Amino acid sequence: MSLLNDLVNLNLCDVTEKVIAEYIWIGGSGMDMRSKARTLPGPESNPSKLPKWNYDGSSTEQATGDNSEVIIYPQAIFRDPFRRGRNMLVMCDTYTPTGDPIPTNKRFIADKIFSHPDVVAEEPWYGIEQEYTLFQKDTKWPLGWPVGGFPAPQGPYYCGVGSDKAFGRDIVDAHYKACLFAGINISGINGEVMPGQWEFQVGPVTGISSGDQVWMARYILERITEIAGAVLSFDPKPVLGDWNGAGAHTNYSTKSMRNDGGIEVINEAIEKLSKRHKEHIAAYGKGNERRLTGLHETADINTFSWGVANRGASVRVGRDTEKEGKGYFEDRRPSSNMDPYVVTSMIAETTILWKP
Amino acid sequence: MSRINDFIKFNLNETTRKSIAEYLWIGGSGMDLRSKARTLPEPVTDPAKLPLWNFDGSSTDQAPGDDSEVILRPQAIFRDPFRGGSNILVMCDTYTPAGDPIPTNKRFSADKIFNHPDVAAEEPWFGIEQEYTLLQKDTKWPLGWPVGGFPGPQGPYYCGVGADKSFGRDIVDAHYKACLYAGINISGINGEVMPAQWEFQVGPATGISAGDQLWVARYILERITEIAGVVLSFDPKPIPGDWNGAGAHTNYSTKSMRNDGGIDVIRKAIEKLGLRHEQHIAAYGEGNDRRLTGRHETADINSFSWGVANRGASIRVGRDTEKAGKGYFEDRRPASNMDPYVVTSMIAETTILWKP
């Protein structure tokens, strides 16, 4: 099989100027990622100079068969860790042929919010902690778990080491380096409380770019699990019972929060969030009610709470921030299957633009 | 296996000027590719400078045993992605010792059409979307499908990512780079609607070159599936039931269609094609009746239709072309097992030379 890998890894730079661009978009369910590749005549680093493309929306539940073309607009370029060389991954969003965003295109609205002058002035930073679970391909049971049974209860697995405690580290480590190669601002990884569950963090990233990078990191992860023969799940509560769910805690700060006196701005922001708890929860991921129970380091879905160093609250403020009087806070409500475009822009909108 | 691979990848350039030429031809069924290799005293880049050769036609259903020699005439050279260095793949067509094309040689008549001054003046471009299915070697069941069963229904697989949605990507990616290396104008790839079905596109290529490039791309794909231990199928309806078939949609334009006012030339061309629907269908691949049912993004085999962005029609005109008033159109009728020499030359003949 080495010959196959040699071809997959072929460096074409000596033979041709051509590069391969993998165009990536989000499909009709809002969570399914799709991609296809095309040859470009030469390297390009500016997304607005890449050609728009189109795909068969009737195959992704985004258009009808008699009017099937959905247009994809390149928005962000990353280096392709699979094809390497000068080849690229291109994050796109989706439009009708007449230039309107299609209903599942959440990036468009987010981009409007992030382009609002008041929001721009505040330079909103995001650090997203993406949790996920790895599953065995044919049984759809978590990776490393005995088929037809359960591993020993949670305890040893969080940041654990050893073949009886860490399941799938090669996937996680491959993903970490692949993302760094791609140009994603991946800031760390750790094994999670539930065995077979992991987390990576992307950030700090400003504005709309946070969503682009998280989606691209998700795509790279799904490509790597594909190679490894494991199935990736972003379900917020993959196994019922005394097993942690999976979230996407979103750390957030604005310029004002990062400056002296920021702790006041943080308090005001959290107040505003508390007044829109229901609206945020509705947009924070499907199935979150199975996860936000008040147990397993979550806050109950129906109540808004916040606290310093409190992992059982909706919003947590770190001790560092409290001590320095400025910094950031963590919204712990979003589930692992949230759309980062929606969550990041909504937090910015509520805390910067919305007036109670 | 590593030492065997070392020999396969051996770079002979430092020891000898000799190069290896793999002569390729199409066998007696019209779809079986054959090849054998010979040593050349030094590298060659012009097909006209390569020697004619011959093979045992009685072993490929192309000649009787008592008069078995079939002559191979080199027509196009490509870099050999398997041997590297200065080694080459040579696309050939087939003749009797007296110099006449044998009956299965479709390139000869295609070449005549493309050399007609009216056709040459129109610079016909072709972009062919070759679909194909990967099968498990011993069961002949599609790759990734459970043996004795079926995967979940179509929906998640088109351009899909993940171990449960994408089967055989390493073959597809190896093929993409190998073709670029070889000098084939491969313009893209994507995962298809049926799981284990894929597509690559070759083009735009002018005239007879489209057929040469597509046949060599098919050869390279069959060599790569051979390495991977997977079987390649160009059957137009590999699995009956609610599973898409495999086609070879042929995109086409002439100089007149690409210039201002081209949309009228396109309409006239489509009209002509409508008048010769039965003749084209007869030449568009065996078994196409199992595929062109009117469902699964096909038009019914007995009726001719066309539409803008309509994937259920015989011919589709893209929105770009409609908007710009010039461009190209897509003949969606050819099956995956069509002969590109036949299809491309027939489209040129009907639209440029034929008078109703």
TrEMBL record, chain A:
- Which region is the signal sequence? none
| GS beta-grasp domain boundaries | 19-99
Entries under Pfam families matching the protein? Gln-synt_C
Set out the biological process GO terms recorded for this chain's protein. glutamine biosynthetic process
Q: In terms of domain of life, where is this protein from?
A: Eukaryota
EC numbers listed for it are: 6.3.1.2
Gene Ontology CC terms: cytoplasm
List the PROSITE patterns hit by this protein, alphabetically: GLNA_1, GLNA_ATP, GS_BETA_GRASP, GS_CATALYTIC
Give start and end of each GS catalytic domain.
Answer: 106-356
Instruction: Identify a single GO molecular function assigned to this protein.
Output: glutamine synthetase activity
Q: Which UniProt keywords apply?
A: ATP-binding, Ligase, Nucleotide-binding
Q: Where is this region: Disordered?
A: 36-63
The protein's annotated catalytic reaction(s) are: L-glutamate + NH4(+) + ATP = L-glutamine + ADP + phosphate + H(+)
Q: What class of enzyme is it?
A: ligase
Q: Which family does it belong to?
A: Belongs to the glutamine synthetase family.
- Assembly: Homooctamer.
Q: Under which name does UniProt file this protein?
A: Glutamine synthetase
* Originating organism: Gossypium mustelinum
UniProtKB/TrEMBL annotation, chain B:
Give me the reactions it catalyses. L-glutamate + NH4(+) + ATP = L-glutamine + ADP + phosphate + H(+)
A GO BP entry is:
glutamine biosynthetic process
Instruction: List cellular component terms (GO).
Output: cytoplasm
GO molecular function, a single term:
glutamine synthetase activity
**Which EC class is this protein assigned?**
ligase
Give the E.C. number(s).
6.3.1.2
Q: What keywords are assigned to this protein?
A: ATP-binding, Ligase, Nucleotide-binding
Q: Which InterPro entries match?
A: Gln_synt_N (IPR008147), Gln_synt_N_sf (IPR036651), Gln_synth/guanido_kin_cat_dom (IPR014746), Gln_synth_cat_dom (IPR008146), Gln_synth_gly_rich_site (IPR027303), Gln_synth_N_conserv_site (IPR027302), Glutamine_Synthetase (IPR050292)
Give every GS catalytic domain span: 106-356
Pfam families listed in its UniProt record: Gln-synt_C (PF00120), Gln-synt_N (PF03951)
The chain positions of domain GS beta-grasp read 19-99
Which superkingdom is the protein from? Eukaryota
Q: Which PANTHER family match?
A: GLUTAMINE SYNTHETASE
Q: Which family does it belong to?
A: Belongs to the glutamine synthetase family.
Q: What is this protein called?
A: Glutamine synthetase
